Amino acid sequence: MKILHTADWHLGKRLDRFSRLEEQVSIMDEIVQIADEQNADIILIAGDLFDNFNPNVEAVELFYKTLKRLSLNGKRPVIAIAGNHDSPNLINAPDPLARECGIILIGHPKAKINPFETEYFTISKSEEGFIELVLKNSETPIRILHTPYANEIRLKEYFGENKEEEINNVLAENWKYLADEFCDENGINILTAHLYMNKKGNEIIEEPEGEKPIKIGNADLIFSDIIPHQIQYTALGHLHGFQNIGTVEKPVIYSSSPLCYSFSEAGQKKYISIINAESGKNVSFEKIQLESGKSLVRKTFDSVKNAVNWLTENPHTFVELTLESTTFLTADERKLLYQSHSGIVYLIPKIKNQEFAENSIHEINLNQNIETLFQDYFKSKNGGQEANEDLMNLFNEILNA
What we know:
alpha/beta, 6-stranded mixed beta sheet, 10 helices, elongated
């Protein structure tokens, strides 16, 4: 059986003032194309379907259309769980209609999906946090332990007041119960969750810039050693870089976000995971690189000319641009930079340090005119840097207003 694992779509997300919707349309097309080319039997989406609790109309429409295409109009099961950016109630809302299209939406931890049957598959068993599916063209059941993200309130509701100590224990107990009860070697056993999970003893994995943090101290840190031994593959969401924190035999995979969503991800390659699974055997998986979307690049230059040359040669990018110089950028230089590239997200002027003795100005003559006083003050506060013409023009404009 082939399973496609993806996560962290963040539909509706922006990069500062830039919309990413056009790129997201392209990347959703690419994921659908891969699913069809690989003849995936089941699709797993491990949370952060949207970027916020109230996604715009375009993001919601793209989400539903993509799920319908992934489901092949009901022929292929799609299971999507909520992440920390998602509203569980919004995810759950279309569930009765979604089921008719072979789509199972799970917003809350410990949700129980009522068994149902379509023309192409059956939910044969269901428990809180668990479903078993049987495809009509296969005798092998697939068992899925599902754990959407739970916020502070839901964690207390589901896991008790003493979250810091109990969450690992409670998850371990719940998962062990479900695995012991339902997951023998006569089926395929999968866990999908939206959690901050790491291998015990490993270095802390940084959460992406701009990501709503799950891990605060060690309160929400889940260790991979609590995954039941019956589980053949764990499909995670939340961290945006592809990585296996498990083993080759028992992969525990963050499949990555489909696009780079912050400059902390600059240069990252993005993937989906294709799992080949059989009952009673170790799975194998293949990561397939996604090609759509613009690259995010952090660049530093020491001259406007060099920056403009690079920007002109690399138009299909979003750029965090740092300009190091001994003088402040003029208005004309800023204009030239922005005219040379439409994807400058951040422009960071950086004044190079100059030797300047703070006591070099021993005494300020307060009888000087206000413009000269301002120039002396600016120089004293900026390491000897002279105020440029644009700044002085602005100062005089304010002075004479």
